[in-house]
Every structure is written in structure tokens, then in C-alpha cells.
Amino acid sequence: MNPTLTIFIILLPFAAFVINGLLSNKLPHKTAGWLAVIAIGISTILSWQTAVSYFLQSEPYIRQLVVNITWLRFTETLQVDMGILLDPISVMMLVVITTVSLMVFVYSLGYMQGEKGFVRYFAFLSLFSFSMLGLVVATNLFQMYMFWELVGVSSYLLIGYYYNKPEAVAAAKKAFIVTRFADFGFLVGILILSYYTGTFDFITITNPENPAIISMTGISFMGISVLTWAVVLIFMGGAGKSAMFPLHIWLPDAMEGPTPVSALIHAATMVVAGVFLVARMFPVVVFHAPAALDVVAFIGAFTLLFAAIIACTQTDIKRILAFSTMSQIGYMMLALGVSGYGHEGLGFTASMFHLFTHAFFKALLFLGAGSIIHALQANDIRQMGGLRKYQPVTHILFLIACLAIAGIPPFAGFFSKDEILTAALASHTVYFGIATLAAALTAFYMFRLYFLVFWNNERTYAHTPHESPAIMLIPMSVLAGGSVVAGFIPFGNFVTSDLKSLETHVHLNVAVISTAVALAGITIAWLFYKRKSEIPDTIAARLGGLYQTIYRKFYIDEIYLFITKRIIFNLVSQPLAWFDRHIIDGFMDLTATATNWISAELKEFQSGQLQKYAYIFLSGVILIVLVVLYTYS
Amino acid sequence: MTWSELLLMRHEWALIGLALVLIMLEIGISDEQKNRIHVVACLLMAAITLFGFWPAESGKIFGGMYITDPLRVLMKNILNAGVLIIFLQSSVWLGKAGMKNRMTEFYLLLVSSLIGVNYLISAGHFLMFYIGLELLTIPIAALAAYEQYQSKSAEAGIKLILSSAFSSAILLFGLSMLYGAIGNLYFTDFSLTDSLLTILGFIFFFSGLAFKISIVPFHLWTADVYEGSPTNVTSYLSVISKGSAVFVLVILLFTLFRTIQPVWQAVLYATAILTMTIGNLFAIRQQNLKRFLAFSSIAQAGFILLGVIHGGSLGMASVVYFVLVYVFSNLAAFGVVQAVEQATGKLNIDDYNGFYNTNPRLSLTMMLALFSLAGIPPLAGFFGKFFLFTAVAESGFYTLLLIAVLNTVIALYYYLLVVKAMFINKSELPVPVIASDGAMRISLLLAVTGILVLGFYSPVFDYINELCKTF
């Protein structure tokens, strides 16, 4: 396939966005929906074709710039390009994004049917796919930053899709502000890096032998090299998008958006942008800024456990999944953080592998949740139970996804998690311990959810829940297929830190431990939640304040509110506001008044009398002559 | 003279051909079919504009009286495209009762003036230059008085012809001094020394040309003429006439007057500050949109001078690029004004209150045009200003840069006043829904496409920059 055709992968969703956006009042719902589906469908085919032809090349894979356009040339040396960079991780991301997008788009045809803003929804969804695809193929930091922000905007628009619902609007604002705050770090990092290297280009920047990069390690600021500073600041942007502690607070609230949106943006694609960013910068970081990787590993491990613990106590089906997403991304970050380069690059491969498999089963979990919510019009799992009778297909598909995320062989999650655990074991026992504990917790909270929804408490419903239509079940089945088989892909042959193939195999001792803890987690969940039981409540009561703390998500939101409202608003903002209102505005008003006054005074010159005009004309000439002669003679 | 030499002048040939076709149509067509002349004129003008992009060569003919090169051709193409848009915008106005019979007159005069523009840009001798300049101006004075039974239009015509006669006199006076100093009027052997006589000659010459660009203090005719003339003629004056004078100013300053660069830099420095500031201060007070756009165009001329001051290829490129952007932005704004004026006769900013509710597409077009004029990213106008400012920064005139930036703030204020009227202000009697005709729609589409594409597609500037480097 001609590699320049890859540009259509990106442009087609954009075209769908433009058409649906411009004609949002005129297009019939069906046309608009199918238009978006067809656009992303062709993108998907092209992506798979690109992937096949790319990975069929002989190793080692090369980084290819298949499209490269100079977009803005500020000076001879400083220019911003737009283009498409193909390398294993970007090709893999293309496949993940287009495939999951296609499934979610099709699913949405059924899920969103009859909504008032149907066309707007598909316009925004297409905008998101366009931005996300542009992000992963970015050839340089600037392009990535631009699409990064576009992704943020489309996420904002979609979280706030139900704009007459105050919670949704608040959640959209929260997501936007928190990620923007993180992106400020990203921007500063980009500026530092490009200031020292004189370029935005990824191929130049991530070359470990680049002398400009090596010289950056020599310059230190507050005892840390500027390269480490730059990279850590860039990763701050990544932590914001990927909802890593302490910038995670927006993700649970983002569940106010339509469920397919949560599946696509807040589970499978956008939230892994941070992981992708770290992977993109990996070659230079691993050699010259290992301290930054330690930060990544630490934050990853912390979020992994932190989110898994919270997930055990939540009662909103989508929020449980949101915390689970955070926790799984923690796995990916941890794996990247402990990874080495080349032969020691198992962590890198494992992280990308988990990103790949996670996209399938987490999207499936969300779509399954959507199917349940669609039937019940409720989010709270305490109002659910016994659904396996009413929604048999959803039940089976959901179970597959739960098994995959819990890491039960031979489902996809088992293989990728196994690699991550092996990589963690090779690095530090503590990381291995955290990862194993989190694996047990994952199995527990997922099956807690599963049993509470599909078994337990066999109630009678006012409106009998019905199975979802085929248009929703088919995409779910495809994703379920992915969740079953994706683990068998020999990922080490394709995606590695140094573009060469890496031998990977299942590590028996690690596999036994992880399967055992997962089964233990499932068993406990089965004992507690299969039937109505007093045990969970008793345990919760025993734990008392601790349980409340976890249930309240460790009061992180409250802490942020305290800091912003009490400290920043009162002590910083109010004096600034006063200064702004009285001094700055006063000055501006004065300028405006003065401008108006001068303008009025000058009006005399514009009298409308031609002879006066000629007079002023001639006086002007003479004045210039006199001044110039005075100066130059 | 060989065939290939004749082809060097193909822009002018094509326009002369168009003029002849128009005359013959006028004679040969019955009164009922006069409407078709509009279609023919637009189609032919479109063909000429497209044909102009045929790769150009450099060369001199008529013993050096006529010079052409790719940059000059690009300048002509930019202005031709502008005239095409003006043609498209005039259908409603010319279709009115009482105008129909005189349609050819309008096109013929406009084409004559455009021929003048082309010769002006390609002039290789000051005589040629002067003929081009007068051919540019005199038909426009006639056009300004086109609606001869309206006193304002008649007044505009007489004001334009008198003041341009006055400025021509000044320009000729300057030329005669230059001739006295050098003894030659061919551009090729025009070697200036910085004697007192040449400096004096230059200042008079410059003032005459500055009149066309409406540089303060030679701008006073602008508002009255712009207001009184038919709106199409105002567009032509503010875009084509001004643009061609800017182009020729850049060419002359960068070649013939290179030896006295410090002098013209000083003159431009002072007049640029005056022009930006006075233009803006007056624009704030205007209620009539045509007067408003007149003063805004004066301010824009001040910004253009920033690029000229730079004196190098970057400055030249930024000026050419800015004029290109300005053509599209200003014509989009004038197009909307024209559409509203023809449908309702309303011209005041207050009349536009609530415009968005009745005419969303026209008001969005107007908004894009004004934002581009104000220089808001990512529209083309932002990049136009950006490159001008880059040029100023590169030449090290930071005070000038600061004043220019302050002026953009003032400009933003009054452009936003119009946007506010359209989108926010409520009105009891908004402008009714306007059904613009096909030609007007095409013209606005062209202009808006230009505003958007030039903003997002940077190779255009690179191309201009390359041309200016080799100029």
C-alpha cells in the first residue's frame, strides 16, 4: 500500500466532522450517523492495511516520515511541521483507535437513537477520532501538543454533551481545567526541550546520540539536569490526560458523558495518550533521564493500587470502571517506568501490549455497562441484580471482559499482565508486590460488580429490562473476540523499545502466582456477592472510618476544593481581583477616555472641504521636507 | 519584436482584449439582453485571473519601458483576483432599473483602470509609470460619480479628481527634480546619489504616491470619497488602487531609491505611526460602515508601511503577503456591506443590530472578515500582521513595534464593535433576511476561502518569500 494514503486515515473522520458539524440542523439522523461510521470504517481498513504492510517489512523496523509538510516557518531554523510518523507504536495506536472507534460509532447508532443532538454527537465523536489519530502520528512535539489540546476539547465537548444537566457541565469543566493545568507543564517542557535542541522533531529529539540532548544532561537546575526537568514536565501533561494521581480527579466525574463516549475516550484511547507520550519519549529518557522514569514508575504503581482500592467501594457502575481504568493505566505506566532498553525492554513491550489488550476489554466493559444502563436507565449497582435472565448476551460478553481484565488465562489480559508482572519482578520486589496485590483487587472488584449486577438480589423490575438491539451487541461481540484472542499476538515481534524483535514467553512462576491471586479475588467476590449476604456490610462497618475514607476517594476532591476555594481564592485571587478592577481597569478606562477625547479633538481636520485638504496635504509635504533637510544636511 | 516578447505582456493584452469584447458587446447586443454582459464580464475576468497563474518569465520589452518578472506577475494576479471578486459583487447593483443600460460603462471603466494598474506595476520608465498612475485614477474618478444624480456620489467624483490632480502635480514636481538630478527617467540607469535635490525630489514623489495609499497626512480625501462612491468603487479604491500603489512603492523603494534608504526609512517611520494612529482614532468614531472601513483601511496602510521599512526581502514578502490577505479580508467585508446596502439601503453600524438572527451566514462572513482585519489567529490576517511585525522586529525598530501592537488593540476594539452589534445587540427592526444572488455568494465564498486557506496553508508565504529573495 502506498504509505502516503495513511493521510486519509486522519482526514476521513475530519471530513465527517466538518460535514456533520456544518449541516447539523439539516441532516437526517440516519445519514449523519452512517456517514460518520463509513468514514471511520474506511479509516479502520486503511489502518489495518498500513499495519500489515508496515509489520511485514523486515526488521529492524524503521521510523518513517510518510507525510511531512512545513506548516509554519517562523525563521530559517524554527519551523513547525505537520506530518505522519510511522513506527511500531504509532501504527499499533492507529489500529487500536480506529478499531475501537468503529465499534463505538456503530454501537452509538443504537445507543443514542432518538437523542436530540444525535448529529452533533457524531460530529464531536468524529472530531475526537481525528484529533486522536493526529496525535499518535505526530512527527513533532508541536503537532502533538496541538492535537493533544484538540483531543482535550473534543473530550470536553462530549463530557458536556447533556448540556442541560448541571453535573455534566461541571464535569466537563473539571476535566478541561485539570487537564489544561497539566498541559501547562507539558507546554513548558516542550519549550525547554526545543529551546536547547532547536527542534520539535521527534526523530531528532529521541535520538539518544543527539549531541544537543547529551549537552542538556550537563546543564543542571536546582541539582537536576534540565533534560530531566523538561521530560518530567512533559510527563506532567501525560499524567493529566492519563488520570494519574494526583491529577486523576476529573476521570470519575467524566462518566457524566454518554457511555459510548466513556468507552472510547475515557477507557480505550484518550486516557492512554499519556502512556503513549512516555513511550514516544522513551529512547532518550531511558538513557539520559532515568530519574524521570523512576517518577513514572512510582506514580504508576501508586495510582495502580490507589485506584484499585477505591474501586472496591464504589457503587456507580461507570465510576467503578473509571477507577479500574486508572488502575490499569497505572500498570502501563509502571511497566514503562521499570523498563530498560533493547534486551531489557520487556517493560516497554509489556506496557504497549497491555495498552492494546486493555483497549478491547475495557471498551467492552463500558459498552456492556451502556447496554445495562440502556435497559435500566440507572447507574447504581445497588438497584441492579439478576440481570443474566433478562440480558443473556450482554451477560456472557460482560463475563468475558471481566475474565480478561482479571487476568484469567487464556484471555487477553492474562498475557499482557503476566509480562508486566515479570518486568516488575525484574526491577524491584516492592513493585511486584504492589502489582500482584492490585491484580487480586482487580479480580475482586470486577467480579463484585459482575455478581451484583447479574446475580444477587433477584428482584422484579417495574419495567422488565430487555436485551439491547443487535446494532449494539454486534460491536460488543467483536470486542469480545478481541479480548479473547488479542493475548496470543506475539507482541515482542512487533513493538519494542529499540525497533528490533524481542523474545517473550509466559513465565510460569509469575503466571501461577497471578492466576492464583486472581482466582482468590474472584472467589472472595463470589462468596460475598453471589447471593445477598451480610458479610460485606459487616466488614465495611468494622473498617468504619477507613471504609468511609476509601469510599470518599481519600478526600482528594475535598482537598483540592479546600486549596482552591479557601487558600487560592481568598488569599491570592481576591487581592488580584481588586488590583485588576481598580488599578488595571482604571488605567484601561483612562486610556479609552483619552483615546476618545483625542479622536474627538482631531475631528476638525476632517472638515469635508477640499481646499483645506489640499492645504494640509501641502503642509505635510513641506513639514517632511523641513524635518528631513534638518536631519540630513 | 518576437512572439515570446509579446507574450511577456500577456496580462495587459488579455485585459485590453476584455475591454474590446465589452465595447463590441455594448454595440452589438440589444437592450433586453444587457444582463448577459455581466455574466460574460465575470467569466472572462475569471479566465484572465486563472490564465495569469501560467508560469511567468522575466524580461524587458520596448527598450526597457516595460519590465516583468514572476513577482510582478504575482502582484498583478493578486489584484486581478480582487477585481474578479468586485465584478461578482456588482451584479445586484448593476441589475437595478436605470443602471442596466449603463452596465458596460462600469465594466469598461474598471477594466481600463485595471490596465493602468498592470502598466503601473510593470513600468520601466517614469513616463510609463505616470501614464499607468493616471490611467488607474481617472476612470475611477468617473466611476465614483457613477450615480450622478446623487449629490454624494457626484461630490465624491469631483473630490477624487481634484485631489488626485493636486497629488499628481506634487508627484510630477518631485519627478522633475529627480530628472534634474539624474538626467534620465529609465529605471535601468537610474542611479541616485544622496544629494539634496534627490532627497527633495523623493519626498515630493513619495507624497504623490502616498496619496494613493492614503498615508497620513495625505489621506483626507479618503473618507469623503469612500463614503460617497458606490460601494463597489469604494472596494476598488480601498483594495486594488491602494494595493497597486503599495506594490509599486515597494518595488521603487527597494530598487531605485535603495541608495537613500535611511531617508525613506525615516519618512516611513514617522508616517507609519501617524497613519496607524490617526486611522484608528477616526475609525472608532464612525457610524457609517463605509467611512468606518475607509479609516480602517487607512490604519491597515499604516501597518503595511511597517514591512516596507524593513527594506529587505523579508519585509517585501511580508508586504506582498499582507496585501494578498487584505484583498480577501476587505472584499469579504465590503461584500457583506454591499449585500445589505443593495437589499435595504442601510449602512450604519446600528442597523446591523441583531443581524446574526436574521442572516447568520452573512454575519459569520462579516465576522471572519473583521477578525482577519483585526489579526486574530488562525485567520490569514493574523499571519499577515505577524510577518509584518517579524520584519519590524528584525530591523530593530522596537518602539515602532510597540506602537503598532498598541494600535492593533485599538483596532480590535472597533472591529469588535461591529461584531458585537451583529451578534449581541438586540434590535426591534433587524435587517430582514437577505437572499443574495449567486454571484455575490460565489464572491463571498472566494473571499472567505482565501481568509481561511491563507491562514492554514503556509507554503503561500514561502513561495512569496522565495520570489522576493530572487527579486
Characterization of the model:
The complex is a heterodimer of chains A (633) and B (471). With 633 residues, chain A is mainly α. Chain A is built from 24 helices and four strands. In chain A, the strands form two sheets. Chain A has a two-stranded antiparallel ribbon. In chain A, strands 3-4 form a two-stranded antiparallel ribbon. In chain A, strand 1 and strand 2 form a beta hairpin. In chain A, helix 11 (259-268) runs parallel beside helix 14. The longest helix of chain A has 47 residues, at 556-602. The model of chain A has no long low-confidence stretch (mean pLDDT 85). Chain B is an all-alpha fold. Chain B has one domain (3-469). A two-stranded antiparallel sheet of chain B has the order 1-2. In chain B, helix 14 (313-344) runs antiparallel to helix 19. The radius of gyration of chain B is 21 Å and the shape is globular. Chains A and B meet through strand 1, helix 23 and helix 24 of A and helix 8, helix 9, helix 10, helix 12 and helix 20 of B.
General shape of chain A: globular
The side-by-side strand order for the widest beta sheet of chain A comes to 1-2
Taking the alpha carbons of the first and last residues of chain A, their distance comes to 72 Å
Which structural class do you get from the secondary structure elements of chain B?
A: mainly alpha
Q: In sequence order, what are the helices and strands of chain B, one letter per element?
A: HHHEEHHHHHHHHHHHHHHHHH
Instruction: Outline the biggest β-sheet of chain A.
Output: 2 strands, antiparallel
